[in-house]
Amino acid sequence: MKRMLVWIMSVLLALTCVNISPNQAMAAGTNLVVNGSFEQPVTGMVDYPPSVPGWQLSGGIAIEFQRIPGQPYAGEQLVELDSLGVSGIYQDIPTEAGKTYKLTFAFSPRPSVSENKLNVSWGNASVAKLEKSGEGLSNTDWQVYTYELKATSNNTRLSFDNLNETSDELGTFIDAVSVEEKLTTPSIKEPDEPCVSGSIISLVDFETLPSGGTPTDDLEFNDTYNYGETKVTFGFDSNHDLTIDVPARFESRLPDPGRRDYYGYTHRRKNDVDLTATQEGGNWFLRNLWKPAETKLMYPYDNNGEFLAVMDGKLGNSASGQIWDADLGEEYTIDAIDQDGNVMDSITTGRLSNNEGAGTYSGLPFPFSFDSLPRPIKVIRISGRATGRGRGFAFDNFSATDVCPK
Fold first, then answer.
1. Helix runs in 56-204, H state only
2. Which of 50, 159, 197, 396 is most buried, by the most CB atoms less than 10 A from its CB?
């Protein structure tokens, strides 16, 4: 049976996945989705209605309504995306820029069908890429997925598709789609808990090892930097559980005689000249090893992993860092995550040019910062996607502070 693959990029994500029976109801609230359970129009066992309230076809031949085989999650009807071929549907949701919304939907493989893929997007950002097998099932096997997503405009397109699947005209059931505004409760410190602003983690530039020694090229990072009451470690998460399971490695910023493409330099088709006059990259970065199995960790067309900076002890509500070697059609999403696994804020680089080597950064870093978030930051997570062959990732100059509310 295929294992489920979930990719978390873009925008804010806080994923909850639970097995749940069809008789359980989803959380109550004001659902901004029209016809989220696909109960209109009422159809036969299988039908392709020419018009569906709330939903539009974004790809494929038709929207397929099903009552068989298998029980819908809610109501009497569901949608099958592998219809007369692969397909996609969307709905434009009324939102308010800056507010956070909770997206919930149910996904099941079609019984006895091995390939069931589901891609979910919020605006221009990919939220999830899911895959499940229905082999051995005699009925639907619904799982409910919940994501917290921030709106960037007053109208946000919610999309579902299986356009990357090889169609056999069978598979990928969805039902019970809802979007609700998330009401947040501000974090309040107790009166006897004075707030003291200050640095939690001073600059981590990877110029020295945690032990104080000098890094060597491709040295595995399996240690922790200690800053008083705070510890921080770095590495890759291949299982999407906010736990480092693949080590990062030190990489020299200086020219490597064995390669033409240097991190912090221009692309190899340009002149290999360091454009960073300020020397802010120093001599060392942290990255994944230049081998296919580890290089591919950052990108969804491969193993779909993420880079993590994980902090323990005293935590701050502000953090910053730099992404290097940002080029070749790459796009990165940086999430600030609290101790409960909730994404508090998110930053995206946007898609970098696939024709300009180092894109808009021309050998310079992409700096990011999160400032005065409502709760302490436990994890910084960086996920990426790319269309170019020379994709790569490097990280440098990390720091964290605590800023008291004014």
1. none
2. 396
* Contacts with 406 (C-beta within 8 Å, 6 or more apart), sequence order: none
Enter the tokens of residue 54.
């709330």
Report whether 382 contacts 9 (CB < 8 A).
no
Both tokens of 41, joined, read: 């129009």
Domain boundary among 136, 153, 181: 181
In a 10 Å sphere around its CB, with 0-12 CB exposed, 13-18 middle and 19+ buried, how is residue 124 labelled? middle
Instruction: For residue 220, list its beta bridge partners.
Output: 249
Same domain, 345 and 389: yes
- Which of 48, 49, 37, 152 is closest to 93 using CA atoms? 152
Cα angle: 168, vertex 174, 179; to 5 degrees = 145
Q: Could you say which DSSP state residue 270 is in?
A: S
**Burial class of residue 236 in the structure, from the number of CB atoms within 10 Å of its CB (0-12 exposed, 13-18 middle, 19+ buried):** buried
Domain that holds residue 207: 198-402
CATH of the domain at 39: 2.60.120.260
End-to-end CA, the chain: 54
Count: domains in the chain: 2
Based on the fold, state whether residues 264 and 319 are members of the same structural domain: yes
Residue 33 forms part of a structural domain: yes
| pTM, rounded to two decimals | 0.51
What does the pLDDT read at residue 248? Answer: 86
pLDDT digits (tens, 9 = 90+) for 70-112: 889 888 999 999 989 999 999 999 999 989 998 999 999 999 9
Closest by CA to 318, choosing from 237, 392, 403, 260, is 403
Please compute, for residue 99, the number of CA atoms within 13 A of its CA located in the half-sphere on the CB side.
17
At residue 111, the pLDDT reads 93
